[in-house]
Every structure is written in structure tokens, then in C-alpha cells.
Amino acid sequence: MTHEEDQVAGLLLAAGGGRRLGGRPKALLEHRGRPLVEYAVGVLRAAGCTRVHVVLGARADAVRGRARLDGCVLVDNPEWESGMGSSLRAGLGSLAGTGARAALVSLVDQPGIGPRAVARVLAAHQDDTSLVSATYDGVRGHPVLFGAAHWAGVAASATGDRGARAYLKEHESAITLVECGDVAEPYDIDTEDDLGHLE
Prior knowledge:
Elements: H1 3-7, E1 8-14, E2 30-31, E3 34-35, H2 36-47, E4 52-56, H3 60-66, E5 73-76, H4 84-95, E6 102-107, H5 115-123, E7 131-136, E8 139-147, H6 151-157, H7 165-170, E9 176-179
Parallel strand pairs: 1-4, 1-6, 4-5, 7-9
Antiparallel strand pairs: 2-3, 6-8, 7-8
Helix pairs in contact: 2-5, 4-6
Protein name: Nucleotidyltransferase family protein
Pfam family, one: NTP_transf_3
Domain MobA-like NTP transferase: 10-172
């Protein structure tokens, strides 16, 4: 096991209720015959994350029942309806005391971002102060890697649906950008029209 794999935990945010999808939780959308959350965990593992924490919210019991998430740490976010910020806080909180020195954050509704992009971001991890973001044709996206030195600051500024956006804006000059537009597509599954991206 390499140093990175041991120290960087995958943190999958999968709590959303799919409001614009008629209230279908994104974690349970089918992709390649399995729930999307299961696919997304597979991507993190294939990229080299051996420890994966999954933040659940909408219909968490149904997700637990349907998706095979063996070996993952499942984190319930009772405040999931308040937006992604609460999921990010819950996820980072769950990493305290695990020995993880960085969190690689990915979103359940971006199946176009596969292991190659995630592995590139993972490879840019150096230490607790690392701040790394994938970019797509120069535009910042996911996954994002936060060294442990940033967790408290990210958690403090993560409100509503903004997640870590405000924190990243404040620390723009410190971010290592990793271009992934040649190996991944950063679309979101947000609306009925987007469901065409699923296979």
C-alpha cells in the first residue's frame, strides 16, 4: 500500500434527495445495473482509496438495503436537507481519529468522473497542508482533496449548498490544480434530462 492510499480517505457525498428528480435520492439512481452510490464507491476504490466514508441522508435505510457498501464507513447526515455543506461537515467529522491525513471528496451524482481523474488528484497529495482540485478545461470541479490542516476551516465555512466553495475561493493561491478534462466529464445528474447520462 502506498503512502497516499493509507493516508487519504475517500469521502463520498451521497445524501441528496434529488429534489429536481421528483424526490428520487441520487444514491439510488441506477447506473450500469447498480445503485449510483455503489458505482461511485467503486470509482474511489479503483483510484486507490482503501478507506471510503459515505455520507447518507435521503432514504438512508433504503440505500443501506439496496447498495452493497461493504467495508465503507457509512455516516448519517440527519441535516441533509440543509444542503451539501452539512454532508461535508458530517463526513469530515467522521474522519477525526481515523489516522487519515487527507480527504478526497467526490459527489455521488458525477458518474462521468472515473478512476483516472480521481487517481490524478490523489497522486498530487503531499501532506496535511495539501489542497488539490481537479479542473476540466481549466474550470475547477471535483474531486477535491483537503489535507487535514484544512478540515476545521472547511467545516466552519461549509453552509447550505455551497460546500467548500467559499473556503476554496479564500485559499485559491494554495490550490494545486490537476487538469482532468482529457479523461473525465464533470456533468451532474440533477434533472430528468441528465438521466440520459446514466447507463
